[in-house]
Specification:
The structure is a single chain. The chain has about 240 residues and is α/β, with parallel strands linked by helices. It has a single domain, classed as Rossmann fold, CATH 3.40.50. It is about 35% helix and about 15% strand. It contains nine helices and nine strands. The strands form three sheets. A five-stranded parallel β-sheet has the order 7-2-1-8-9, with helices on both faces. The chain has a two-stranded antiparallel sheet with strand order 3-4. α2 runs antiparallel to α3, α3 runs antiparallel to α4 and α3 runs antiparallel to α8. The longest helix has 15 residues. The chain starts with a strand and ends in a 5-residue tail after the last helix.
Amino acid sequence: MNNITFAIHQPNYIPWLGYFYKIAKSEKFVFLDDVQYPRGQSYSNRNRIKTPNGPTYLTIPISIPSGNKGKVSYKEVKFANNRWKRKHLKTLEFNYKRADYYDEVYPFVENIIQKDLSFAELNMQLIKEICKYLNIATPTYKLSNLLNDYGSKTRLIIDIAKELEANTYLSGTGGGKEYNDRELLSKNNIKLIYSDFEHPQYKQLWGDFTPNLSILDLLFNCGAESKKILVESKRV
């Protein structure tokens, strides 16, 4: 079998740079749209952008059926309302109108946010459109379409690997590490590697550099150079 690297992640809203680095470094990527939506605050429905007053969150208000907290999947989550769409677009316009590539990036972001999509589908379409803009051609899959039955934690990784006929799992270095049983993966002929992402520094608006923002901050400020900065630039 040829070496095929795959990565997985929940379909989060306008994710940070490391999310796209992981996609770019994979040959196959799976959206975990059918796993449990987290309780409490997470980056599932929000991310940070930069303003003249410092970073601020863009947060999608979500609705989970009463009594089902901790039991619903990403694809079952609904919007609490649609008022957030206009607010987020106006906030992006206000804070990035002066950015060099605002006129290039804003239209496709606006187009997707204005569509009548579910929470998970909106997030996945935004991610895929951003990948297209960045010329990241990694094929993407939805867990809900890929498998009808699968295990949890490391077993989920193994089940996905078998379905994709992949043998190297590229993991992030955050909370997902707790799911990685290296020995069990090895027994199933899956090599575990971790992302070597180091956050690059790039030109931003509004004063000193702020890391760990949404990918949109990089796109608005750097345009087509964003992929080179994301994947190839000297780390700082």
